[in-house]
Structures are given as structure tokens and as C-alpha cells.
Amino acid sequence: MIEDFGIFLHMLMGRQIEISKKNFPNIEEEYSKLTIIQLDYLYAIHTLNSPSFSDIAKHMNVANSSVTEMYHRLYKKGYVCKSQSEKDKREYQIHLTFKGNKLIYKDLMASICLSKEIFEKAPRDKLLGAYELLKEYLYTIKSEEIEQYFVKYSEYKDIENNYLD
């Protein structure tokens, strides 16, 4: 059963990619420019909301030098920028650029489209049990991150038209 569940999750991720390609025709080109690890960094920056280099290192459990190296790669591709911290002039905060925010927005929208597709096709009583199970699991391991996602999602909804092609 565990292996089957893993295969089902993998297939869901594949379906999300299909939805992304359908709804955002140029997203495949954007994804092809990034590694999975680079996408992880973008999500960390998105989740942490203008983090310092050391915030990202702590969040991702990597060395500060790894964050610096990844910052330069993502900066060259136009996904991130930095600014000096107002609190501590010795620190810099990393921000997603419009291009970075747009990619995260599209990826998030594909997840929501997949959820809508599942909710339209599955019996409601079974969905509620699956929803509660996922919610409980994720809140147990990533409660702060989940709260940030909801905050960011509401911000995206306010400026949604800016990210649509």
C-alpha cells in the first residue's frame, strides 16, 4: 500500500505538470531553465517572505555559501534580487522578482486546478477524509510554512491579473 501511495503521488505530480502546460503554455520553457533544487530555493524565498541568506540556509539546512551560490544563479536568470536589510545593514534580504513570483504563482495555480479537478470527480465524503488527513499531516510537519502559503496566496489573488499571460 505504501508503494502504491507513492506511485499515486508521483502520478499526481505528473498530472499537475500537464495542467501547468495546458493553462500556461510557456511554463515548460520556464521549468526547463531550472533544476528541482533551484525551484526549491524559489519556494523557500517565497515561503519565508524576503529572507536573509542565513534564513534560507537554516530553512533548507545548507551552508550559507550554498545559498550565495544559488542566489547568483537565480539572479542571472532573473528570478531573484536582493536589498539591504532595514534592521541590520550588514544583512541582505532576498526577494522574488516579478518573473520569480509569476513562476511560483503559475505553479500554485496548477496545484489548485488539480485540486478542483479531483474535487469535481471524487465523492465528497471520501474527499473530506483525504483532505483532513493531508491537512493534519502537513500541519504537523510544516505549520508555519502552510500559514505563509495562505498569506501569499491571498496576496497573489489580489494581483492575479499581473501574472496571467
Could you please describe the fold and organization of this structure?
By secondary structure, the protein is mainly alpha-helical. It has a single domain, classed as Orthogonal Bundle (Arc Repressor Mutant, subunit A), CATH 1.10.10.10. 73% of the residues lie in helices and 6% in strands. The protein has helices at 2-23, 27-32, 36-48, 53-60, 64-76, 98-121, 124-158; strands spanning 80-84, 92-96. Helix 4 (53-60) crosses helix 5. The protein is globular and about 55 Å long. InterPro entries: HTH_MarR-typ, WH-like_DNA-bd_sf, WH_DNA-bd_sf.
Low-confidence stretches: none
CATH superfamily: Winged helix-like DNA-binding domain superfamily/Winged helix DNA-binding domain
Count of strand segments: 2
Q: What proportion of the residues is helical, as a percent range?
A: over 70%
Tell me the distance between the termini. Answer: 41 Å
User: By helix and strand content, what is the structural category?
Assistant: mainly alpha
Give the strand content.
5-15%
Summed up, the helix count is 7
- Integer-rounded radius of gyration: 17 Å
CATH fold group: Arc Repressor Mutant, subunit A
**Shape, principal axes of CA atoms:** globular
Question: Kindly state the mean pLDDT as a whole number?
Answer: 85
Order of strands, main sheet, comes to 1-2
Which helices and strands occur, and which strands form pairs?
Layout: H1 2-23, H2 27-32, H3 36-48, H4 53-60, H5 64-76, E1 80-84, E2 92-96, H6 98-121, H7 124-158
Antiparallel strand pairs: 1-2
Helix pairs in contact: 1-6, 3-4, 4-5
GO molecular function, one term: DNA binding
Protein name: DNA-binding MarR family transcriptional regulator
InterPro entries: HTH_MarR-typ (IPR000835), WH-like_DNA-bd_sf (IPR036388), WH_DNA-bd_sf (IPR036390)
